[in-house]
Design brief:
The chain has two domains: about 140 residues, 3-Layer(aba) Sandwich (Rossmann fold), CATH 3.40.50; about 120 residues, Rossmann fold (3-Layer(aba) Sandwich), CATH 3.40.50.1980. Helix content is about 45%, strand content about 15%. Helix 5 packs antiparallel against helix 6 and helix 8 packs across helix 9. The chain starts with a helix and ends with a helix. The N terminus is likely disordered.
Length: about 300
């Protein structure tokens, strides 16, 4: 009987150690998993070397269509903190993320914590909101502040670092927002029309005074039809739009067909649902926003 008790104790200890291994990293760093690259870059900027940050969706990945693999689920279960966009952006991962939120981990949907009055509701408040909140830098400042508070709560010993980094990054975001407004002001109002593959830039339009038109809706789960293409071609001709834009995470075929039929040029590539390659200027949130604004203004001048 004594041997049985010892065996049970050893099994319990082994299970406890396995549970601990899920949330520990070399050096005792906070283990964080983020869905999108925009969130991941912000978390890395705020956490510095106090956290090991894993981003599930890399450059060119469409979060609307992304499905969590078995290894992704294992990675998510091994995190202490999970940040995701929410607002139905990661639609095919929703069930997995909601299940994890009921467990012991800290799971934060950054978009869901914003004041609903600040969101765009294409179908009215009875339908889903537009999830592309990162294109309004002022909104992203609020997201950054949320992340800072979450990190400080999850790792109290690093609270001073997170607070300091949060203030520094907040200043950078404020300056970026002002710069975007200055760049947009170079274009007269009639020229501020941004046409893209899907309707990802409405927050950009609201923040910086652009009319935004997408070939597809806010999600890329359904493809554009002939009627959508025809209507957009007519719109471009009527408004004499000089250029339209492809997106890094959406197939170019349909929007290139629109450009050809309307006789307008492709003004460049915009980063919509993901950032640029790691190590490039566009591989950071600040650099991605700057690239997009410069590309739009240069093409529409």
């Amino acid at each position: 009987m004594r041997n049985l008790y010892q065996l049970i104790a050893l099994i319990c200890l082994a299970l406890l150690l396995v549970g601990c291994q899920k949330t520990s990293t070399p050096g005792g760093k906070l283990r964080i998993v983020c869905t999108t690259s925009m969130i991941g870059d912000t978390v890395r900027t705020l956490a510095q070397d106090r956290a090991e940050v894993v981003v599930l969706m890399g450059p060119g990945v469409d979060p609307h269509l992304y499905k969590a693999s078995t290894s992704d689920v294992t990675t998510l279960r091994g995190a202490q903190v999970i940040f995701y966009n929410g607002l139905h952006l990661e639609g095919k991962m929703q069930e997995v993320l909601q299940t994890l939120a009921r467990g012991q981990q800290t799971v934060v949907a950054v978009g869901d914590k914003l004041d609903p009055k600040l969101l765009l509701w294409p179908s009215g408040e009875s339908g889903p909101p537009d999830p592309h909140i990162w294109f309004d830098v002022e909104l992203w400042r609020q997201v950054s502040q949320q992340i800072t508070a979450t990190l400080a709560e999850a790792d109290p010993q690093g609270a001073n670092l997170y607070t300091a980094q949060g203030k520094k990054y907040d200043q950078q975001l404020e300056e970026l927002h002002d710069w975007c407004q200055q760049q947009a002001s170079q274009l007269p109002k009639p020229r501020r029309i941004t046409v893209t593959s899907h309707d990802a830039f409405s927050y950009f339009g609201r923040a910086y005074g652009f009319e935004v038109v997408g070939l597809q809706g806010i999600s890329t789960t359904s493809e554009a039809g002939i009627r959508d293409v025809t209507q957009l071609v007519d719109f471009l001709k009527k408004n004499k739009v000089p250029a339209i834009f492809v997106e890094s995470s959406v197939s170019r075929a349909a929007i290139e067909r629109v450009a050809k039929d309307a006789g307008v040029k492709i003004g460049g590539e915009l980063y919509s649902d993901s950032m640029g390659p790691a190590g490039s200027p566009e591989g950071t949130y600040l650099g991605m926003i700057r690239h997009n604004m410069q590309t739009v203004v240069s093409a529409l001048k």
